[in-house]
Amino acid sequence: MEKEYVVYQSKSKQVGLSLLGLLMVLVSLVLLLIGITEAEYWFLGIGIISFLFFGACEIYIVKQVFLGKKLVVLSKVGFNDYSSALATKDKVILWDDVKKIENKDMLNQSFVSVYLKNPEEFLSDLSSFQRKAIAANVKMGFGEINITLQSAKKCTNDQLIERMHSFIDSSGNNSL
pLDDT per residue over 124-164, tens digit each? Predict the structure, then answer.
């Protein structure tokens, strides 16, 4: 059994997203220039706000292309989720704390949904934004942790679930 399994973000998907972001930056720049040349404050305001927003997003996306962002890291003791804004990042979720793992769908997007044995204990360490968003997900029937592999490189939800189960089995936790 391997010591660690890492799912990385696909660079080609990130480059495509970066090109779309560049288009949005250019459209924002056009709006900004129209606002300046025509003295249209409405265009100027929208141009400034959108240029700042899409420019910051573009910088972040380009940075991710070169860094090779990790989405999920599985280890012998547990896993780390870096796949979304609600991700637990550097907080290790122990295999002993996992109750169930399943594939869930919502609005044409599928997730690896992880249900925990003691969700209250897990939630207490998170920010209030994360707690509220996770509570909303749980009310909709999802687990406390939802991993999205939409931008993953060479890994499907089913493959990740299979790997997670093999790590759980090798850790001695066969309660799933």
Answer: 888 888 889 889 989 999 999 999 998 888 899 999 999 99
User: 45-60: buried (b, 16+ CB within 10 Å) or exposed (e) per residue?
Assistant: ebbeebbeebbebbee
Q: Are strands 70-75 and 4-8 parallel, antiparallel or unpaired?
A: antiparallel
Q: Which residues contact 52 (CB under 8 A, 6 or more apart)?
A: none
Phi, psi of 82 (to 5 degrees): -120, 15
DSSP state of 10: P
Report the C-alpha gap between 73 and 4 in whole angstroms. Answer: 7
Pairing of strands 98-106, 109-116: antiparallel
Model-level pTM? 0.72
Distance CA 44, CA 32 (A): 5
Q: Which two tokens stand for residue 56?
A: 């910051």
Q: Of 71, 54, 69, which Cα lies nearest the Cα of 19?
A: 54
Query: Which tens digit of pLDDT belongs to each residue from 51-103?
Result: 999 999 898 788 777 776 889 999 999 999 988 877 888 889 999 999 999 99
